[in-house]
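tool_call: predict_structure(chain=1)
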Amino acid sequence: MENEEQIKEMVKQKYSEIALQDKELNQSSCCGSGTCSTEVYNIMSDDYTHLEGYDPNADLGLGCGLPTQFAKIKKGDVVVDLGSGAGNDCFIARAETGDTGKVIGIDFTPAMIEKARVNAEKLGFNNVEFRQGDIEKMPMTANVADVVVSNCVLNLVPNKKAVFHEIMRVLKNGGHFSISDIVLTGSLPEKIQSAAEMYAGCVASAIDKSEYLGYIKEAGFKNITLQKEKPIIVPDDILKDYLSEEEIKIYKSHPTVIFSITVYAEKPAECCSPKSGCC
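tool_result:
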């Protein structure tokens, strides 16, 4: 892969294209629940349709879990969604926090912010807002959020360690997060690791699960809990774009190494760590 700025620009371009294309085209090209899978973005998505607050116009099929379902959101909470896309998780969080709460979505891509704002306007939500920004340095003051959620986004960020420190900074003392993301329990073939499309689809950018959880612990969080874990199987019609037939056989002969996890953790109620910015 390239340097951090080049990676960010590549991600912004890829997700701008997704935001601007027709929703039906996106679904048919990604084929998350169909028999084809010619795009990598949608092979990990879960079904949101049963959750209160679900808006099909905001569902681009880009997630790898249902973090809002596990996030223990209460009425009146301030919820922050990292990598909010077209607003899907924000609107489900809004159904949980109600009229007395507030939901703030942060996304790196201007086209996604615009799409999310249009969706919120159509729904008449005046307590949901979207801010453009880098989640490595969030456009928010410290100690304001009760809950942070994110769905398959930290994988797109080169400096994942910085994001967890930022989550610690913006959470109130005693606040918590529920985040769905992709992790590894082994190594990926070099050709997958170096593929931009696989990076933008959160596969090539995945890091080892123990390293991922280590960043959470290092940031100062407690009660770290895996709420859900599922294997991710990359279909042959995606693998063949990067690997030879023999390489695919070798890859598939090993145990599954790509997993979606939903992880929960809490900021200590009495937090006094200057490094985490919570004093």
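agent: The two ends are 37 Å apart (CA to CA). Proceeding to next step.
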